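Quick one: co-fold with orotidine-5'-monophosphate.
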Amino acid sequence: MSNFTTRLKAKIEEKKSFVCVGLDPRLNRIPEQIKEEIVAEYGKTKEAVGKIFLEFNQGIIDAVADYAAAVKPQIAFYEQYGHQGIKAYEETIEYAKKKDLLVIGDAKRNDIGSTAKAYADGHLGEVDFWEEAEVGYGADALTVNGYLGSDGIDPFVEACNQQGKGIFVLVRTSNPSAGELQDLEADNKRIYEVMAELVNDWGEDIKDEDGFSAVGAVIGATYPEEAEELREIMGNAYFLVPGYGAQGAGAKEVVPSFKDGGYGAIVNSARGIIFAYQREPWKDRFSADEYQEAAQAAVEYMREDINTALNEAGKLPW
Ligand SMILES: O=C(O)c1cc(=O)[nH]c(=O)n1[C@@H]1O[C@H](COP(=O)(O)O)[C@@H](O)[C@H]1O
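Sure, here it is.
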């Protein structure tokens, strides 16, 4: 199987899009017409929630597939509903792959090495199945927490190597409190800079033909100055950049995460796209029945917004 970054770049080129759509369903924001039909059949049960999530996600995937390179389901929204939610997570990944999208599983996993291996096998690789091995969730890439150090990361890097997968290590997160720990200094370096250097080390032996490593970094769009500095430190890492849209960042803020020749970053937005029908400026144009059209308008806008900003910065690769 080809490298994850080779596939990601090809997908970005094919769709002319650096957009990743976050599939983070919330029951109280899903259009009533989807819920009513399913509740009529399954009642107000967790089974119904799983089916509602899947149907909503399929609608979103159909609407955005031509305009996005990847989707990123965040597992927290699913696992809170137990196995019925997890089933929806699994089936969402399957459907997105069928629709030719790359899937970044957002689970921010890690643990001691031996346990991390179970996470890596389950999310990216193959799980022990008597004499056989069976593919787990089957995501193309996974978000991981690097806080446990190298032995916790090794199993994920192994999965990248053997299965052509990718990981995105949390380096500079998008949230308001990110700096509480990440800005602390050790040996005259900030913690996020130390993490960036570890990302380089972990990805050293797993690069594609353009030098991009399968070990990428999560860099919040809400911290463009840090992104610029981190782009310098991690010349070979792909950045997963959340924070566009609902968290307040715009296209200008994501530009520093890209390399000069373009590429090197993929930008995520969840609420701004999947719930566009409830948000400015789309909510006056689209009803709840038209949530797919609203998502499509929002993703098309985001794609153009980022491409325009990259073009102005001389970083659009086509
Ligand atoms: O790893 C992530 O994806 C992530 C890291 C980070 O620093 N900030 C961040 O917002 N995320 C995720 O990105 C998504 C952002 O969603 P919206 O704010 O709705 O666009 C959520 O799934 C978050 O869990």
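If it helps, Residues 4-21+60-80+90-311 form a domain with the TIM Barrel fold (CATH 3.20.20.70).
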